[in-house]
Amino acid sequence: MEKPVKSDRISNLPWDVLNSILVHLPLRDVARTSLLSRKWRYKWTSLSQFVIDDKCFPYSLPDKTRWGEIRRIFHLVQSNHNGPIEKFKLAAYCYPDHSDLNEWINYLTVKGIKELILQDFSFIRRFKLPSCLFSCPRLICLELHGCILKLPPTFRGFNCLKSLQLAQVSIISETLEYLITSCPALERLTLLNIDHLAILRIRNQNLKYLKIDSEFEDIFLQSSPLLASVDIRMIPVDGRSMPWSEERDPSNLIRVLGCLYGIKKLTLSSYFIKVGHSNEVIRPVVDFLKDQCLYNFFFSQLKVVRIRGLCGTRPELEFLKLILAHSPVLEALTVVKYGSERVPESLLLHVERASEKLKITSLSL
């Protein structure tokens, strides 16, 4: 008696169900499904999400061969894909061909891309983004690495964009400011090693998370009432701290702290609260931190504070006192000081504090 032929239940699943299964597998494994049968030969090329990273290739492959494999994968997708592509991530750790990137971004914008992530390339020169990228109405997440970003005159904003990350991107301050304000749904903003930043102005009513680790001369946080997590590492331009003058405010604290009413996690490091050592600089900063105008100012949501790279100056200590006295729900304060000596915990234990369940940790670099 002949055995009944088992039906291929997986192959007969609706494509939207198959797609939801396959997008959770590594691309290398998904591509292997082409060996199952003639019916499966190009099925993987119609996925709605593609994540191409170094896990797809043998570690020993040289750069040129690695990029050739990436090109081959994408050309198969271009030739056989049906439907939208919602996510595309490329992290190849090799030297990309700029003409290929231009062609692919053009293709992805037509496909209704929602998440575009280009990261971790080895760039000899910056890649200039094609203008078509800035006319993607459905973009939700955009992460760019090693690019030149210039907005075309036709740019009217990314109305759906919720997450923006720029790393080693060349962009001028005015362009960055306009880009941020032109994303009304933006919730997360990350800026890492940005080229050519001078004054950093950040204004966005919906912004909740901000991380900055870059060179810049000065910073303004304005009209961002929902900011809950802020992490700023200020690297001096050309390795030098900016000189103080009568035209500049003696400290950038007032422009940052003044809008952080909903802050829950605050991390400041490097030169962010460095103001110099002369009396003409220290005196106005200390006077500001002790001013009565801050008496009714509270960080009512702040629970975690980390401050790295303190030198032990009087303005820094006054700032710590301000945090302790105006953070009623603060649970953890970590202070990291340059040099072999830590900030004495006794110095912080005997100052006024608004929180009764605060744990203070003092470390040294």
TrEMBL record:
**Coiled-coil spans in chain:** none
Classification via InterPro entries? At1g61320/At1g61330-like, F-box-like_dom_sf, F-box_dom, FBD, LRR_dom_sf, LRR_FXL15/At3g58940/PEG3-like
**F-box domain location:** 7-41
Q: Which Pfam families match?
A: F-box, FBD, LRR_At5g56370
Cited SMART domains: FBOX
Please identify the protein, giving its name as recorded: F-box/FBD/LRR-repeat protein At1g13570 isoform X2
Natural source organism = Theobroma cacao (Cacao)
